Amino acid sequence: MPQTKTPSVIPAHLLDVAAEIAAEEPAIADWLTGVEEGWFLRDFVPRPDRPEVFDEQAGFCFNRDPVSFLIGGNAAGTTEAAAYKTANYLLRDQPPPRKNTPFWIISNTYDQVCDVCWLEKLEGHGHIPDCEINWDGVSWLNKAKGWPKSVPLKPWPGRPGRNWQIVFKSYEQGRRALQASSIGGFWFSEQFPLPLFLETLRGCRECMFPGGQFAEFTPVEPELSLWVEAVMEDPPKGWRFYRANTEENEVNLAEGWLEQFLSVIPEEMRDSRMTGALAGFEGVIYQSFMPAIHVIDEKHILFPSGAYHAMGTDWGASIEHPHATIWAYRDGMGDWVIYDEYWSASQNKITLDHVTEVLARCEAWGWPVEELDPKDSKPPHKRLRLENTASYGLNYADPSRPGEINEWNVRGIPTAPARNAIFEGIDCVRTLLGVNPATRRPRLLISKNCKHLIQEIRKYRWMRGRRPEQGNYLNPKVALAQPLKRDDDCADALRYLLFSLSQANRRQPSSVRHAARAPKAVQLATKAAGRTRQSSRSIGQGNRGMFKGNR
Fold it and tell me: What is the 3-state secondary structure (H, E, C) of 88-113?
């Protein structure tokens, strides 16, 4: 047979081996010829990077980063780019370390991973040519549809008995299906939960090859965008994020498609659908909240002279409705800093456990905590001593549970029912998110350690009704003008605290006036603690160190 020209896609150190194999295997010879003529890996040419318009397809395709992400708009060519990167990795860049080394392709459904990633892209567009597949070893999920469960590739030249095996996975299988497997790389297609990604990444513990762990998606789900944004702000070493712009891929789209698509995209979704900008929540309540402006590092939290401290609490005891308490101080300008949070979704903890934790944090932050005689007090035999202090105030809590408020008072944390005017409270928080003209800083700052509060403020949104296009409704239900009761516990605690004190004097009343104005339960707790004052000792006054537990 005529001599086959070994193409440039063959690594230099394998040219001689490729020539020998081609001389003996006609199918391989045909494949090499096809490669040189351009049908394999060359029909698709990654777009040159244009980061100024959020388009970095080539950077993603050719990078050798340990972990990389291509975040793009709809029809921006992210899946095609990932298919190209997969073929390069499996056929050119990375020799398999053992027989049937798994490379996982994972998506939200089997329709996506088998129909799109495999049938349309990898096989259909020739990224993985038929001559590279060991068809006798293919395991089928649905042979009639052409959906494989796994596709073994043929051994690499010069590496007998060592080959890659493409394995197809779906998020529908859950985290357990992704556990305890040692794999040689993966491609995530479409948005995914962080636990699934971490479990899959853990599977690369033995074979963390350069360029072999990557993902591509359009960020249309706000819930799944939060963790991505957090990682983008402070990425682990070796992680890299790339973007893809739909408009830059217009040449590969049907004529007129882009104009039609743009005409039906809601304005608030356009950036996500076109350039891969991370999605925000529709109907978000605190639209002016920006982590880059409102979130500060713990080391910048310094209690100024005359600062007034208080707490806010939302009751709960489950993952749907956890317990949340926040700590804050107000400075002499009337501006607020939220410096700690206690969040617990445990269903095993009782009131005493929460009280003990909150008192411990108060002590760590320098609040006036007093030990009590066990003979004359309930556990935890401590209390906040707020008489004769202008620097520390009450805990303002959800007023719907007066029994819990009373119990906290009796156990040593003076607690009052918060003002729960929802709309006025929301307006109060919105106002404080604005800039103080005198300081040119936001009137509300939050420590970056308050992770649940930060996340909830971003997700805090109005309820919405069902749109006509979401069902056959002549008169779709209009949602009530109420915040969505989901992931809002820290946000509610913040609202309770800030609104309850929004019209209060900056200075705490004297002990007599304080007792007169406090709820009856607070007065009883103060009197009970006073009877044991002579047998108690003050603790925690000077300790402003950070309390590290249960953060």
Answer: HHHHHHCCCCCCCEEEEEEECCHHHH
